[in-house]
Write a structure and sequence with these properties.
Residues 29-48 bind DNA. Pfam families: TetR_C_1, TetR_N. The protein is 65% helix and 0% strand. It is mainly α. Helix 4 (51-66) crosses helix 5.
Length: 204
Amino acid sequence: MPRPRTPLLDRRRIGAAALRLADEQGVLTIPALARELGVAPSALYHHVSGRGEIISLMREELALETSPDDWDSSQPWEQALEEWARSYRKAFAAHPGAVPLLATAPLAEPFMHAMYEKVAELLLTAGFTASQVMPLINALENFILGSALDLVAPPVMVSDVTRETAPHLTAVLAGTPTDHRRAELAFDVGLRALLTGFRALLTR
């Protein structure tokens, strides 16, 4: 048979398919990915060394959407960090099923190192100490990942509350949105609180 004009596989196709599969099923296996791509499992190994490299390709797909390369160096560090946080959350929110997989694999990819280099440079230039930077990044990332998962959670997370047993909780729930705005409001409040807390560290 003649060779197809367009190759069945390339690294971008593998990464995108793996991201889609993990998002839909919450897990990633080589046989399932091969079925998703319509090829034999052995065909994948012509392009990747194994599952770890596939996860790297998934990260690369997301990194294209979260890179801080276009930061305006003249803008305040809070604004730059907020823009990065929002783009990061947006990218992960599109693939919530993949979050547990991507969040627990070591970050060994040069393109991820380049992204963190930008964030580290931003925070060091702002005046944070070297020992503060990674805890700040980790804290912000943990919040972002949790917020991405919250976007696909039920609009009402606390239910069946009675005024008799929990009058204060009932009062605050009455003013809480019962649609997608709940997650958006929580993200906005939490991000503002984090950035305010970060800023306070500079004054110590």
